[in-house]
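To: structure subgroup
Subject: Chain for Friday's discussion

All,

I'm putting the inputs and outputs inline so they're searchable in the archive.
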Amino acid sequence: MSQLLSADQHPKAPPTEDRARARIIAAACSHFFALGFRGVTMDDLAAELGMSKKTLYASFSGKNDLLRAVLLDKSRSIEADLERISVHSGADVMVALRELLSCAQRYTQEIQPPFVRDIGREAPEMFELVQSRRRDAIQRYFRRLFDNGRRTGIFRKDIPAPIIIEMLLSATEAIINPTTMSQLGLTANEGFTLVITVILEGVFTGRRRLAKWRFNPSPPSK
């Protein structure tokens, strides 16, 4: 795990290399999430980007290295959006809740079943990185939200915020993982939506308030 996390701290590359890496990561992200890890080759990416394989391998040693870069880049984008929402929503808990959930849903919609299947089979150590970053984000941003919600009477005060967070983390890790989603026939977005709906229905103080934000879950895939 320490080796994976340290991958977030690359030496500063020259501007031209930065631009090349960014192009490669953007293309890989789009294809990996939609088609799966196994369904995309380095040759495919080089051809689409109009660059030689030599240039591609100068930036990334192989597909696993590129996958790590894709996951870290996506994690940074999510965390930047969550931080922006947290800062700009201020003390308005309902606005923050809607925006945080919309942000999370937007990102989970990108992740299609082939990617979930492949990361579980081909790169389980990469999923550990996903879980670590996801746990940190939930603890940081949703803990702040639940604390504010309890103070303003939106969330129940008889359930401590740390307990709510642990329930959310446990449910997320139990459902949003390759094995469980495959067994249940869920996409990442469907699994996340169902988890967050069940948890929040239990902590809101009133059904009418809950109805105002209702996070409509998509039906599980057939």
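Points worth raising on Friday:
The CA atoms of residues 12 and 18 lie 8 Å apart.
The two ends are 35 Å apart (CA to CA).

D.
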